[in-house]
Design brief:
23% of the residues lie in helices and 38% in strands. The protein is an alpha+beta fold.
Length: 259
């Protein structure tokens, strides 16, 4: 009797396995489905200076407006604040990496530098200056409107390892759709929530790795250079995003809290 039961159980498992293997790949979330996509999140990168010595700090108008957008679209946006020095005012969170990225972006436009300066999905849209919170919300919303509700053929999964004050990004990138992708860049940013008002998304360190090729229907895992936590007492987040080889167009982005 026992042998008969085992035989029936094995037959059932075989039948179930065969049925599962015959499932048609028409699920849009299945990376092996050539029509698969994910909703694209929009990356917003704000270049700001929040030093207290700056009179009538219009950067704070822009940051408050971005807070409003984040509250309106909590699942659709990843916002990064890059602090940079200006001609007359230094910012304690300035870095040479922030400045290099900013100069790279504005070279696509008129090369006129200033803060606040806000970019959407790389250089797909730009809004410079701020005269008030509501005015900034209106201008940012206009730039954002053409980028929401798009699909992406990339999916990002964020992982990391902790080693003391280091965060070592371990990022999985999947290529969806029906074609391979090549000549890409994977970028990560460590964000510190230093205070809840105007220093809640401060980029403190970055690392980058080129992606030569990802075949469609597959994913690759990348371990990037360690990122350094400089304010251990505050909450941190890890952002990751995929760009073209020129690092000017963002195809997908994601963010996760660092524990």
């Amino acid at each position: 009797m026992a042998s008969g039961f085992v035989s029936k159980l094995l037959t059932l498992f075989i039948a179930l396995f065969a049925a599962c293997s015959d499932i048609p790949r028409d699920n849009p979330l299945d990376p092996k489905n050539p029509e698969s996509t994910r909703k694209q999140k929009v990356l917003i990168e704000a270049f700001v200076n929040t030093t207290d010595s700056l009179p009538a700090n219009v950067n704070k108008f822009a940051l408050a407006a971005l807070d409003s957008l984040q509250n309106t679209y909590p699942a659709e946006l990843v916002i990064l604040d890059y602090h940079r020095n200006t001609r007359d005012y230094s910012d304690p969170y300035h870095s040479i990496e922030n400045e290099n990225l900013y100069r790279h972006y504005i070279a696509r436009f008129d090369s006129f530098a200033g803060v606040p300066d806000v970019f959407f999905n790389g250089t797909l849209a730009r809004v410079q200056g701020a005269s008030g919170v509501q005015n900034s919300i209106t201008r940012f919303s206009t730039a954002l409107s053409g980028l929401l509700n798009r699909n992406s053929e990339f999916f990002i999964e964020i992982g990391y390892q902790r080693n003391g004050s280091q965060v070592i990004p371990e990022i999985k990138v999947a290529r969806l759709g029906g074609s391979d992708a090549s000549n890409l860049v994977l970028k990560t940013a460590l964000i510190a929530q230093i205070d809840p008002q105007f220093l809640k998304r401060v980029v403190r360190d970055v690392s980058t790795v080129p992606i030569q090729r990802i075949e469609h229907g597959t994913f690759r895992k990348f371990t990037l250079a360690p990122l350094l936590i400089k304010e251990p007492a505050v909450k941190h987040f890890l952002a990751a995003y995929v760009t073209d080889g020129a690092e000017e167009v963002v195809f997908q982005c994601e963010i996760s809290e660092v524990q």
